[in-house]
């Protein structure tokens, strides 16, 4: 399970002003946009684009991945400033070592490409909530102690009621491979029909009560919470926070299957979280290696200006440089749905589709703070993750309310010079974009706003 939010419209990096920006180029990246043909052209080298390109190359397709940036990875790339190596995106992971149909989808792709990611394991993160500060551990029993101390016996009772209800559903959730889960009616063809035998087997094992509950897997998780009549404020807030960390939405916006799958991974005996050694950039490096191992190509600094459509079929792309690259079989876009719509000729896209995309709300932006700091005097048990919620009443999706802090150098010391740490603090998809829209990044107004809005992160660190 790779946890994090979708690519934002706007990324604001606020760096320690003692450090200067430099370019980090992962090993084995070869910028090559000289070829004018490929079987499949992939627009964008985010995690999904690299997975798509790698698997197509693995199955003998001539693939060219085009990336506008000077490094691959999209919102999940890493960058280096002097001897400090920073994650730009997600930092909470699990399941890289899993195998089989129910494995982490990214682990399945890496396995197909013959690649692996060395990881270090851990089982907890620090939580700072209005009720208090505590080390939250994953697993079946430790969290009950935290609930007893910070929320009371009723919260313990409701949490136990929730686990008793949803853990039996985990067999059905695990029978649906994560790659098949979708949030629309297409799930009926991609999941329920294809995996009907394994679902029926799971229902038979669970018995009538479990099978009845499993029918809720494709409904919002809030339906399960409401059906169980869970009313404890801490429990409901905590579940909103978990859903937000997993999918960027609260419990009323996330599929029950995703939450049940997460619960089965986090609240079973012996479960752990994982962090890739050498940082999240190691994930991108592994995917690029897999792509190139099977003959796939990646071209950096290759901005796609538009997708060429002839006779109702995407047949290539035009780069900002003016170069035309033709696709024998397909063009795949790893850009957002809104950006993809802008890449297509307006007259080839049905108006109903255009309207649906334009009416789909985008998540808010991310405010990022990246720091390199001295480790002297820092406790040895600092821990990698720290989650801050200032006010439950405002909601976990309110701006300036939830701050996530990652200090990955406590687990992968090569990310910082000896005696130093790297830190990544950010507000997760809650920064209002309209505050920044139209501002000149070189203006004093922009710099002042950046300092003001980053204050919620810098005060905490």
From TrEMBL:
Q: Which protein is depicted?
A: Amine oxidase domain-containing protein
Source species taxonomy: Eukaryota, Viridiplantae, Streptophyta, Embryophyta, Tracheophyta
Q: Which GO terms describe its biological process?
A: carotenoid metabolic process
Q: Do you know which PANTHER family this protein is assigned to?
A: FAD_NAD(P)-BINDING OXIDOREDUCTASE FAMILY PROTEIN, PTHR46313
Domain named Amine oxidase is located at: 47-442
* GO molecular function, a single term: oxidoreductase activity
């Amino acid at each position: 399970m790779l946890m994090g939010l979708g690519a934002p419209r706007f990324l604001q990096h606020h760096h320690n002003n003692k450090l200067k920006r430099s370019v980090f180029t992962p090993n084995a990246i070869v910028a090559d946009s000289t070829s004018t043909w490929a079987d499949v052209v992939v627009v964008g080298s985010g995690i999904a684009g690299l997975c798509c390109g790698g698997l197509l190359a693995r199955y003998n397709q001539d693939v060219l991945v085009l990336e506008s940036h000077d490094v691959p990875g999209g919102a999940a790339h890493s960058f280096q400033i002097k001897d400090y190596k920073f994650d730009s995106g997600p930092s909470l992971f699990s399941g890289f070592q899993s195998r089989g149909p129910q494995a982490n989808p990214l682990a399945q792709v890496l396995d197909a490409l013959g690649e692996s990611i060395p990881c270090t394991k851990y089982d907890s993160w620090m939580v700072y909530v209005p009720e208090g500060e505590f080390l939250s551990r994953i697993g079946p029993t430790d969290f009950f102690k935290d609930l007893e101390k910070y929320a009371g016996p009723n919260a313990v009772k409701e949490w136990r009621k929730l686990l008793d209800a949803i853990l039996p559903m985990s067999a059905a959730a695990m029978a649906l491979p994560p790659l098949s889960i979708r949030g629309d009616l297409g799930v009926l063809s991609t999941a329920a029909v294809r995996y009907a035998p394994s679902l029926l087997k799971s229902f038979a094992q669970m018995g009538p009560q479990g099978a009845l509950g499993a029918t809720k897997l494709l409904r919002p998780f809030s339906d399960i919470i409401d059906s169980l009549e869970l009313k404890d404020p801490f429990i409901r807030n905590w579940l909103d926070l978990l859903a937000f960390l997993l999918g960027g939405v609260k419990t009323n916006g996330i599929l029950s299957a995703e939450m049940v799958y997460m619960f089965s991974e986090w609240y079973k005996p012996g479960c752990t979280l994982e962090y890739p050694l050498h940082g999240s950039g190691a994930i991108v490096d592994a995917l690029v290696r897999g792509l190139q191992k099977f003959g796939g190509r990646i071209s950096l600094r290759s901005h796609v200006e538009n997708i060429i459509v002839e006779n109702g079929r995407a047949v290539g792309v035009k780069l900002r440089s003016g170069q035309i690259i033709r696709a024998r079989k397909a063009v795949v876009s790893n850009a957002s749905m809104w950006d993809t719509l802008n890449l297509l000729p307006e007259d080839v896209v049905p108006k109903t589709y255009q309207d649906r995309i334009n009416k789909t709300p985008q998540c808010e932006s991310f405010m990022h703070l990246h720091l390199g700091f001295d480790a002297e005097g820092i406790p040895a048990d600092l821990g990698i993750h720290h989650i801050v919620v200032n006010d439950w009443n405002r909601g976990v999706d309110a701006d300036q309310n939830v701050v996530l802090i990652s200090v990955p150098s406590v687990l992968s010391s090569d990310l910082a010079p000896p005696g130093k740490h790297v830190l990544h603090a950010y507000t997760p998809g809650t920064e209002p974009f309209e505050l920044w829209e139209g501002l000149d990044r070189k203006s004093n107004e922009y710099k002042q706003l950046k300092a003001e809005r980053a204050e919620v992160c810098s005060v905490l660190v």
